[in-house]
Amino acid sequence: MKIKVLPLGPLETNCYILENDDEALIIDPSGDAETIIGAIEEDRTVKGILLTHAHFDHIGALDAVASHFGAETWIGGEERDWLADASKNGSGKYRDMGLEVIESSIVPKTMEEGERQIGGFSFHVLHTPGHSPGSMSYLFEDFIVSGDVLFNGGIGRTDLYQADHLTLLSSIREKLYTLDEDLTVYPGHGPETTIGDEKMGNPFVRT
């Protein structure tokens, strides 16, 4: 499997494109829809769009990308209605700063914790709330996409709508830090890391 990392949108949020021989998955189409569309080779079929959570900087290009590829979207059930609600997805807060207000028309499918198969992609879904109530992390064979839960040397904010700091720490310790220490972590912002490196050196959450 090949993975492409595209830091896009006003907050340079990482959009991930996963490709196998003839299929692709998109995780968090954060912004700049044309860049995302252009990064997918023409002979690949987009089998779906996975959202780690519904904050505005992770869904800025969702409608355009989903429409272009005719792809279904999956999200944690706690945040299904956030896509269309600017007060919940956070985009309304930054209206006065000139950022786009996002009120998506996408009706997503609900993603639940456990083993999943979309096209030729097999992965395990971990419900990792705290940064937001429906945050999902997507575990593939040798890497995990963690959204805004765990970063390289950092953790997600918890001063947002329905966020909770203790819940976030619990998600990291109980769901992520129990994984193989060599596992690569692809976060919502910034460079990748590994579970082992974060267990050893993340200053915000210790084992």
Automatic annotation (TrEMBL):
Cofactor(s) needed by this chain: Zn(2+)
Domain of life of the source: Bacteria
Name used for this protein in its record: MBL fold metallo-hydrolase
Record keywords, A-Z: Hydrolase, Metal-binding, Zinc
Stretches assigned to the Metallo-beta-lactamase domain: 12-189
Database matches in Pfam families: Lactamase_B
InterPro entries: MBL_Glyoxalase_II (IPR051453), Metallo-B-lactamas (IPR001279), RibonucZ/Hydroxyglut_hydro (IPR036866)
SMART domains found in the cross-reference section: Lactamase_B
